[in-house]
Amino acid sequence: MPLLALTMGDPAGIGGELTLRTWRALLHTQHCFVALDDPDRLAALAATMGCDVPIRVLTDTAGAAAMFRDALPVIPVRLANPAVPGRPDKANARAVICSIEQATHLAMQGAVGGIVTNPINKAALYDAGFAYPGHTEFLAALTGAGGKQIMMLASPQLRVVPVTVHASLRESLAMLSSDMILLAARTTHAALRRDFGIAHPRLAMAGLNPHAGEQGALGDEETTIIAPAMAALRADGIDVTGPWPPDTMFTAAARARYDVAICMYHDQALIPLKTLDMDHGVNVTLGLPIVRTSPDHGTAYDIAGKGIADPTSLIAAIELAATLAERRAAAKA
């Protein structure tokens, strides 16, 4: 399995606890990662949690995979202040951003097969100059893929892609266009073939309005915006069906008929996925020159430092990132 880079996330959140628990869960498997984090913070967390995690400090990724069975390899990203669980500190924001930047640089160099990002709190980073709505847009800028990035949420039961993402519902409805749908669908189709190994992806298009507009009685966006995009996709040879009523397209029977649901806005996509399988949901950024995944949850300040954070989603993110990285490497070979 390829070596992955795991970012720090918000040091006041549960990211550090997840990193430690995930290392213990994976040390006897084929998976391995190097953490871009403050080793002193991780060591203190391990002691507080009573978690036996030896930490080995490295200057680069050389030897990280070989030592993973014996110790957690860490490339240091030092915090300005000691982290206090549940209390984000703007003085530490620069380290959080630096961790993401360094992990991305390692992936762009080919030193790691991909990156997995622990959860951040965007509001806590703005004072340090973070000017992006989220990880997805920041990574796109770092890799030169700005405007091409697409967010997918994937679990064993469902894959969803929201066309509009980090915007209010009012703004999302105003910005929705046929071109945005085409970009999301084409990027998703290409990723399903290359990274997920699906030879003939089946895309299901969600309607925007109740009952998918009820033939215009409840809104005309299905006819004026979604249908033209679907016609263009079919002209490309892409298997796309819909637009389907959003209230019925996520049943077990409906899900068996497609490989991914293309949804019109954030919550239309994320509510069904998180309801079905919150623990195993993984955030995947499509359209980047590198592999990037993330657990499908936030910083969880309310339980930070209590030693009860569940690493299941982070483990799933690492397992999926490794699989995607292997497929990309095989395709290049």
Fill in the keyword field for this structure.
alpha/beta; single chain; Isopropylmalate Dehydrogenase; globular; twelve-stranded mixed sheet; 333 residues; 2 domains
Topology:
Elements (H helix, E strand, L loop, with lengths): L2 E5 L7 H12 L5 E6 L1 H11 L5 E3 L6 H4 L4 E5 L16 H17 L4 E3 L5 H4 L9 H9 L6 E5 L4 E4 L6 H7 L2 H17 L7 E5 L14 H15 L3 E6 L7 H4 L4 E4 L2 H12 L4 E5 L5 E4 L16 H21 L1
Parallel strand pairs: 1-2, 1-5, 2-4, 3-4, 5-12, 7-10, 8-9, 8-10
Antiparallel strand pairs: 6-7, 6-11, 11-12
3D structure, described in words:
This protein has 12 helices and 12 strands. 40% of the residues lie in helices and 17% in strands.
Task: Provide mean pLDDT, rounded.
Answer: 93
Give Rg in angstroms.
Answer: 20 Å
CATH architecture of the largest domain: 3-Layer(aba) Sandwich
Please give the number of β-strands. Answer: 12
Count of discrete structural domains: 2
